[in-house]
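Sample 3 of the quickstart, ligand PLZ:
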Amino acid sequence: MALLDAETEHRTQGGPGLPQQRRLVTDLPGPRSAAILARKVDAVPAGVGHTVPVAAVAAGGGVVVDADGNSLIDLGSGIAVATVGNAHPKIAAAVAAQAAQFTHTCFMISPYESYIEVAEALNRLTPGDFAKKSALFNSGAEAVENAIKIARKHTGRQAVVAFDHGYHGRTNLTMALTAKSMPYKSGFGPFAPEVYRAPMSYPFRDGLTGPDAAERAISQMEKQIGAGNLAAIIIEPIQGEGGFIVPADGFLPALADWCRANGVVFIADEVQTGFARTGHMFASEIFGVVPDLITTAKGIAGGLPLAAVTGRAEIMDASHAGGLGGTYGGNPIACAAALAAIDVFENDGVIERAQQIGTILTERLTAMQSQDPRIGDVRGHGAMIAAEFVDPETNAPDAALTAAVAQAAIAQGVIVLTCGTYGNVIRFLPPLSIGDDLLIEGLDVVAEALAAA
Ligand code: PLZ
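Result:
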């Protein structure tokens, strides 16, 4: 098939109708992608990087198709966003219908029902059987910023604690909350004040029980900040960019109890873990914690930019009228997409599918680990599983091996993402619409890449 025909076909035929196959018709990037990426170099600043050297033209099910007609297996979901599957028919239809009706009035000017419906759904679906309210924003970072604003207003306190290996965004306050300097913070200071860092529970590296790790963090917060000065702690129940770090049992509940006893707002950043990703609607459920506030984004709207802060009504109501908002927050098209996505999350067996995917990923990766001591740890929940690569002698992080495996897999048409403070983790975040055969083929390719590295 001529390249042009392939491109035209894929432009008009995205979503689950795409052939579900790994098929490389060129080396990556092919000539069309290479030409587009050359224009990127001229038109887009170097600071905006990319992982996979292709220009996407269609995606759906478990594949991303590029401008040359290459079909790649998607094990990244655009960083945990296309959870229900790219161009999901229910979302595409809801977006088209809303775009034909009205695209924007600004919720702060002329409100509309879909925003309120999304808020009602979030209030219902998030953990905690108390009165809740939700406010909508555009990005995960913006949700985090607003959660901190709300917690400060509610408590009348200023200090905020984030954790080692934490990631919360790229805006000024969220850079301050984010732990890792390169590439997120280096040279971009000064950072927002009154942000402190506490040690995380990282069982593979610290060997501490959950309660002991919590005790270490609490004692540091009490000594260095003082509970009476602390507005909030913010933590990802499973850390995403930091390396899919799953805290030891008891760590999060002990922190939440301490917060409650001291009038500190406990904020769970579920931007990456939320909406069925971990085999639960929210990862907080895995650990039996009920956050005061939850930030969400990514999977919430099937790829449309939407984010939210949801939490206890009395905390959410702390702000004076007009104190929260933004031109686009809760845009009607994004809300229509979110309502369609939430319908899928609740009614189409997506949580069960995340659990099945988690079983396939975990069994395969632990089997690989038993043959290959360079895999130091396999961890995660549901469709959020990672392998940490180490020097088998010393357990030291092996970022070079990790990068080599990821690059080799991508060159063979499998999109995998790395993460981790030490850059030594490959994370698997497939869309839940991927079939078992493609998932297993993707894992085969990663296994071959590791064997060859
Ligand atoms: N909180 C827990 O994972 C976004 C960003 C990757 P935005 N993570 C992926 C990158 O290199 O920029 C994220 C997250 C958690 C907040 C955010 C920020 O969400 O929608 O990217 O602003």
